[in-house]
Amino acid sequence: MATAMTETTTAAEPVDLLAKFDPIIQTREQLLAAGVEDPFNLVMEQVLSPTRAVCNGRDTILLGTYNYMGMTFDADVIEAGRQALTDFGAGTTGSRVLNGTYQTHAACEEALKDFYGMSHAMVFSTGYQANLGMVSTLAGKGDFIILDADSHASIYDGCKMSNADIVRFRHNDVADLEKRLKRLPPEAGKLVVLEGVYSMLGDVAPLPELVAVAKAHGAMVLVDEAHGMGFFGEHGRGVYEEQGVADDVDFVVGTFSKSVGTVGGFCVSNHPKFEILRLVCRPYTFTASLPPAVIACSTTSIRKLMTAHDKRARLWEATRRLHGGLKARGFRLATDTPESAIVSVLMPDQETTALMWSTLIELGVYVNMSRPPATPAGVFLLRCSICALHSDEQIDIVLAKFEQAAQMAQLALHEHA
Fold first, then answer.
1. In terms of C-beta density within 10 A (0-12 exposed, 13-18 middle, 19 or more buried), how is residue 261 classed?
2. Model-level pTM?
3. Among 21, 65, 269, 271, which lies 20 to 30 A Cα-Cα from 382?
């Protein structure tokens, strides 16, 4: 008789898939060991207004929320959400192409079409998904995506998902864009992706020159106006409107999580085939739609932004006051003039950036700490985003706190900024 043979195997030690993040873990632990507060784990116990909150038990001026137009506490916006919650319930539990399109979603897309003067609008569940979906769907295998090197992570991730060939050009460099477009096959499909305002440095793209080069080489153009909607241009549509290139831009992507004051994303366009994207854009098709209350808040906010001329003017006034005040005090800023509602303060290194951020939060001012890879290599920032509801008094307090924090952190300031 044959004897049964049994083999014993020893379970292999699993490879730790999180080990790749050990350098980041180590860096974070070193920062926290130095006594700074965790800049990426802030808890707001109470939000008092678009410009104030209680953070870690302290009354804090909010200067890093992208709540540009201060719509989060608008009475009409809140009431619209409350009514939709009562009328339609808490959520849709479905995709937009199944049971997830309510009357509120259709109304929001109509508001976007009116706001932008476009024929088509498509609402996504987040701004990230809007870029992810549009970039990955418009360009596919055999096509080319040409993007600014400083593009947002959502654009880069859309590129990865697209299977298109990716070409980067130097930030806001018209000549470099043209050089790279000239190398591409003239018969290939091309999508040039730009941003009106780049969120790290707060600088504005030279869209007329960039768009002209793109069109001269047969490319379609997508502009992300996440940080320009609400206060650039005659109608608040964004940098592309202010710079006069609306007729040459094929797709405009935006978000609700900044000037609109809610959450969500969208794309608007006049392309006659645009509606087919609802069936072929995976980040749109295969996710649940936004809750009716969020959509209703967004719709009301968008329609109010159409006539928010006083708020736009006030936002620019507050931005100039902060930018000019910081510059006069010797801080190094990413832009010589206030190009957008983002004022980025340049820091010499990561340790100083973290110490300044921690000191400011202790002094009652919240800003964003930004470091690579979110920023360009070697660039460390304290990013300030201004709200139309920031008072002159609040801006002056912020300026005084920045100066105090610099002294406490031993940050050298420039006498002639």
1. buried
2. 0.94
3. 21
